[in-house]
Amino acid sequence: MMNTKNIVATLSLLGLFVALSPSAAVAEDFGIHALAHSAATPGDHEAMAKYYEDLATQTQEKIREQRQLLEHYEDKSYLYGRQAQDLQAHTDALIHKYEKEATANIKEAALHRQLASKLEENSYSAARLSAVGPSHKNTVSEE
To answer: How far are the Cα atoms of 66, 75, 133 from residue 97, in angstroms, in the given order?
Structure first.
């Protein structure tokens, strides 16, 4: 009897955490998107890339946890009675959701790395042109 109460309490808390987590993620996501739109320097984009890489790492950790939980549900399904299949399906769905999220974060990080690289190239080219000076521009236009 006590074991059933512990399982129900644990599952209730898990459901509560899952229900509350998206709202926090939405608020944080809004701030990150605003920062991404205002990113102007290679350093800004590098910071954004690191943020998304860290987020992907955290999401991959969630995937590992959910896979362990799924394995537990599959191995010990007799402990959960009729709910076993529902728990397995829910956990499997979370794994797929987190996999998509991790992939999106990795793509976003790669995009920001690419933007940082382009900005560095552009600033390097502009610095080279300004170092050459105006006399080079006149020579080039006369040819």
So the answer is: 11, 23, 55
